[in-house]
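Good morning C.,

I know you're traveling, so I'll keep this short. The sequence:
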Amino acid sequence: MRMTLSALLAGTLITGTLLAGTAAAQGATLRPDQVEYRALFKELVETNTTLSTGSCTLAAERMAARLRAAGMPDDRITLFATPENPREGGLVAVYPGTSKVLKPILAIAHIDVVEARREDWTRDPFSLIEEDGYLYGRGVSDNKAMAATLVDTLIRFQQTGYKPKRTVKIALTCGEETNGAFNGVEWLAANRRALIDAEFALNEGGGGSSDGKGKVVEQVIQVGEKTFANYRLETRNPGGHSSVPRPDNAIYQLTRALAKLEAHEFPIEFTDTTQTYFREAGAGRKDAIGTAMVALAANPADKSAAAIVNADPFLHSNLRTTCVATMLDGGHARNALAQRAGAYVNCRIFPGHSVEAIRAELGRIIGDPDVAITALPPLRPTPPAPPLDPRVMEPARKLVARYFPGVPLVPAMANGYTDATFLGAVGIPTYGVPGAWGDPDGNGVHGLNERIEARSLYVGRDFLFDLIKAYAGQ
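The tokens, ready to paste straight into the viewer:
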């Protein structure tokens, strides 16, 4: 997942202009350091890291080679992979700080990408191609721009002899894009916790949105996300000949259960993050929904405000747990009563609720003990929402003000999920960084002809470099 949160939030804040201080942002010739960065980015994008035919392990090895070439010692570079998943490995690199008491900061980025078929794309998805101010290729937005920037940041530290107070760690991992595949962050949290130990972590999930015409209109820092969970609803009976219908029909029993689920509205909830988002982003909208957002943040029991806000699908989901049927199956023959009927229900769970608690709630909603409800593996953890920590928020706010004058930084909770889930579960609060931006159409992320605006790539790179330095120097 990359930039999806900010794309969904596009248009909710006041507009501002992009800082015109970077040569790349003005369309001028790239600086020498940007030329080197582009070469690194190109190598990473052109390394196929799909689950089907690619290799995250190869991509991690190539990034490790670049760190070594910059002078980083081998004892600060850890390549990892398991025997069961040899192509799904990753990389952890550690740049030491001077303080013996300050905890490190960690920055993570997944290097696996969604599948991309050459016959479907206009351009080769695994060749970095620049056209009309955009760079095309699978993963350019999700999430190899950030991954390349993290490697580039440590290279720049190494080459300049930078001495941060805090140790800076980066982790490039596989498995974020495929639920149920080997996940590098999950593996590190379970098996190499000390290696990635940190005060807090930086991740994808935040970012900016443009108006599609070159103007950045918002910047978001992701603070918290929902938990992803799939459930199987199933009904069974002996079935029989379709010429003799029975009252205990498995298909009808299942449809009654789904109708109850459809009619159910989970209650409105707020975290500190979402309350702040509704108050600040609502104030910036200057429309009826914005006014209702502010009112709801002040009084969650305001039914008239809730009715207005709920008309927006993203805001409706941002206020509560949601569960929706996504797949159906049933029956075994056209001339027979179904012996079995089933449905898959996908839930995005608001922080503070476990997967099991929502399974039990589904049972109460349906009210039929003969409808079996099973939480399907893999079962993700349900960590608490990260705090609105001033040590994280203020440096980011100051940099947004410098890079994007007039554009406020707003904290927001993601309706989706990222690898932050696994870090939060082991006590490392994780934040989705602002900086790079996407267009209102989502830039083809997870779809065809994925792209990133060249200005977004280079300005986002400088922004994240400065942000990491600001945290490391605290």
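Safe travels,
E.
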